[in-house]
Amino acid sequence: MNTGNFKNSFLKLERAEEILVEIEAKMKTDPPYLYVLETDASTHQRATLAKKNSDSLDRLVIRCGELFHNLRSA
């Protein structure tokens, strides 16, 4: 099978896979959302909230854009 005509496509798919691995690692080390358990001292009610980590979320969005660009152009 002659893959010479599709070399760029294979390279873009390979790069997309690398970016996906980077995204998965980043999600574990610096998640875009942190979950916090808050307790109301007067009522003793608890609530679980998601707090946005804006810097991490912004970087994640950019990496996802790069991933989709490579997949689309492959």
UniProtKB/TrEMBL annotation:
User: What is the native source organism of this protein?
Assistant: Parabacteroides distasonis
Q: Which domain of life is it from?
A: Bacteria
| Protein's name according to its UniProt entry | Uncharacterized protein
